[in-house]
Amino acid sequence: MKKTFATITILSMIFITTACQQNLTARHTLEEVLPLIELFLNDPVSHDTALPLFEGTNITYNIDGIEIEDLSLLKSPIYDSYLPIEIKIYAQDETLTIQQEIYVLSDYSPKHNYEIHLSEVDFENISKETYSPSIISLYQEDTIIFEKEGQVRGRGNSNWFSYEKKSYRISFSEDIEMMGLRAHHDYLLIGMHADKSLMRDALAHQLSILMELEITQDTRYVELYVNDNYHGLYTLIEDRTYIKTGEDSLSFALELDHRIYWDQTGELHIRIDGAPYGIKRSLDLEPDTLSGIQSYLDAVLQDLKNGVIHPDIDVTNWVKYMFIQELFKNVDAWGLSVFIYRDQEGSLKFGPVWDFDFALGNADYVGDVYYEPEGFFLAFDPRMTWFYHAFQIFDFKLAFKNEIITYYQDILPSYLTLIEVLGESLIPYSENNFNRWDVFNTPLWPNPMFMVEFETHMDHVLWISDFIFERSKWYQQAMFKQPFI
Q: For the chain, which residues make up each domain, given as ranges?
C-alpha cells in the first residue's frame, strides 16, 4: 500500500510539474480560449468540424475515452449520440478541466446540413441519355466547400417516368472526395419521391454496414438546389458500379437485372438458370470470358441443386445479404439490383445492397400478406434461384439461423435506436421537402392506400420501426420451430 501511494504521489507531482511548465509557456489566457471552446461544445460535431486550437497553448481533447487531435479521425457513432468529452486547457493563468457531453453526428445524419447546388444548367431539358454541363457546388450551412465543373443527367426507370421529383447522376472529370465518402467521379442523387419516410435506402445501407457486409455503400443526406431554387431532400450515394473490396479488383461482378428485357441498353449480359445478369466489372472481356463466367456460375448453381455448397461460396456473406433482403421484404430482389461477384481470393459473394425504396411494405402490387411482418418472403421463392436451392441444405439453414440470433441479440437494439434517431432528425428536412413537393397525402405508385393516409412523416417512421421490430421477433421465433432445421 505504501509503495502504491508513493507511486501515485510521484505521478501526481510529475503531472503538476508538467502542467506548470505548460502554463508558463502558454500564450493565451483562459478568458481568451474559453469563448471558442464554449461555441464548440454547444454545436453538433462531426468528422469535418475543426477542433478549437490555439498556437502556443496546449489543449487536449478526449472523446469517449480516446484522445483526439483531429476530428476527421474520430470514429463516427452509428447514430447521432451524446458522447463524454474531457478538455484540458493549460492556459497562462490556470489549468482547467472541462467534463461534459458533446453531440456527435453520424456520417449520414441530415444534421450535417449539406447542400448540393447545380448552377448554369438547362434543367428543363435534362434527359437520361445525355449529360448536361453544370457547375456543381457543395455547401455546408452557407459555407462553400467546393465548386467544380461537372455534368448531370437523369437516372432511374420507373422513377424517371413516374414522378415529378426525379433522381439524377452527377459526374466529374476526376475522383472527388466529399462529405467523408470515398473519392469517386460519379454520384447518384436519389429523390425518394415514393418513399415518404425518406429513409428506406439509408436504413438498408446502414444495416449492411452494421452486419459488416464486405462491400457497402454509404449515404449522405443533401438538400438539392437547382439554379438557386430549392429542389428537395435527396440521398447522395456512390454509383453502384463502384464495386470493389478495398483497393482490390474483382474477378467479375454481375447484376441480376430483368430490365434488360424492356430497356435494351446493349449491356453485355449472360443468363443463369434463365435469368439475365449484366456485366458490371471484369478483368478480362475477351470473347471466351462471358462463356467462362457463365459456365462457372452454372456449375456453382448445379452443386446447390445437388445439395452441395460449392467451396467458393462465402456462406457467411450469403446469409447476411439474404437476411437483409428478407428483413426488408425487398420486392426488387426478385429480379433487380442484386449484385454477385467473385473476389481475387476466389470467394463468391453478394453485395452491395441496392434499391430499397419499394421495400418494407411500400408496394401495392404484391398482396396483403406483404404488409404483415411474419413469413418468409424470398428464401423459399424459386425466383431467388441461388437462395432457394441453398435453403434446401441443412448447413446453409443453420448458418442463416445463427446469423439471425447474432443480429437479434447484438444488432437489433442499436438498429431500432438508429431508426428512431434518424426519423426524428429528418423532421425539419421532411417539412421542407414536402412543402416543395406537396404529395404527402397523395397516392404515388406503388404506395399502398393505408400509407397514403398516414398523417405525418413520423407515422411512416413509426410504421417502419414497428415492422422491423415485429419481423425481427418473428424471425427469432421461427428459427427454433420445426421443420426449419
A: 2-104, 110-238, 252-478
